[in-house]
Design goal:
About 50% of the residues lie in helices and about 10% in strands. With about 375 residues, the protein is of the alpha/beta class. Strand 5, helix 9 and strand 6 form a beta-alpha-beta unit. Helix 4 (about 130-135) packs across helix 5 (about 140-155), helix 5 packs parallel to helix 8 (about 190-200) and helix 10 (about 250-260) packs across helix 11. About 45% of the residues are buried.
Length: about 375
Amino acid sequence: MGDEQQTPASPAPAPAPAPAPVAATSLGQGDEDHQAESDGAGATTTTAAGAGASTAAGASGEATKAGASKKQPVAIVFVGMAGSGKTTVAQRVSADLHQSNTPVYAMNLDPAVAKVPFGCNIDIRDTVNYKGVMKQYGLGPNGGIMTCLNLFATKFDQVMSLVEKRTDEIDYVLMDTPGQIEVFTWSASGAIITESLAATVPTVLAYVVDTPRTTNPVTFMSNMLYACSIMFKTKLPIVIVFNKTDVVSHEFAQEWMTDFEAFRDALEQHSEAHGEAYIEDLTRSMSLVLDKFYAGIRSCGVSAATGAGIESFYAAVEEARSEYDEFYRPEMERRRDEAKRLEEQHRQAAVARMRKNMKMDENIKTDVGSDAAA
Ligand SMILES: Nc1nc2c(ncn2[C@@H]2O[C@H](COP(=O)(O)OP(=O)(O)OP(=O)(O)O)[C@@H](O)[C@H]2O)c(=O)[nH]1
Ligand SMILES: [Mg+2]
């Protein structure tokens, strides 16, 4: 939620107040990790407010201390257009998990949000002061958010070590991101944050869509292209979360994703009504391109306001986690091995260059020799 607070999509009723997170306690009330969370990530711009940190995860951790065979937690990063409902969906999921005593570790990465409506263990606002950063660096709202994220990214290794310490006791890591989607998804700091998270625990992206605002086929296509580009950039499994289904059902969207004819008909109707033939051509070609993308992703419809459809969200996240295990993790390990191999290659090349520069004869014996016992 940035400075430009988005108006709700539609005649959106206020979301039903989700149950309060279990045992949210403020910083410094006996949870050492929380002290560290606030202290550890301190930057020059810190407000050291400490507010907003809660022990939501730790308090309910015992519920799933399942021992050695416990599955790793899954991290869900909420992204999506401004006002699509990222924060409200995160709030709903957090409340729902707390209600079923499922331990959660929640993070807020939106420095500009006025109030975080769920108990969070890590709050970027405890580390960087958005208004202060804007003033100090003479920035506008987006530059301010970007700089706050950059400052926070420099401390993210500390955040990850806190998460790592908790992996045995938590089942979900929830991460809410700033309203201006591009600030997170196309910035170096956003990449550092998602990559660090994905290197630590299975991570999936929840791309939240404002369903009532997506009934126009051209808007729908733009939204899907954005989701597609984020997936290709991060290479992480993605779940499309059609939100606000209390206002408009998501069925039309899922139909457009699976039935090209239906989408084409909607596009023709739209084009006739608005006389935008050039957009129709472009969108039609794009939708053919997107066919492959649709085949590989999963979607669900939820209402963060009422909680409807939340089960389908968990099911989609589980599928996405399997995809992470099957494709992302091996690919990440391959890239890591490749980076090691290249590093070794560079090292050997540097040694060879040095020998050459020193005009060392290949025959000169440079072995360290055998040890004394030999
Ligand atoms: N009717 C309805 N309204 C919703 C739902 N989810 C969110 N809203 C409303 O949509 C508006 C935006 O919700 P947020 O959760 O702040 O959206 P966001 O994506 O986090 O917004 P930014 O962080 O500013 O990008 C608020 O007025 C919410 O009350 C929903 O499921 N149904
Ligand atoms: Mg938000």
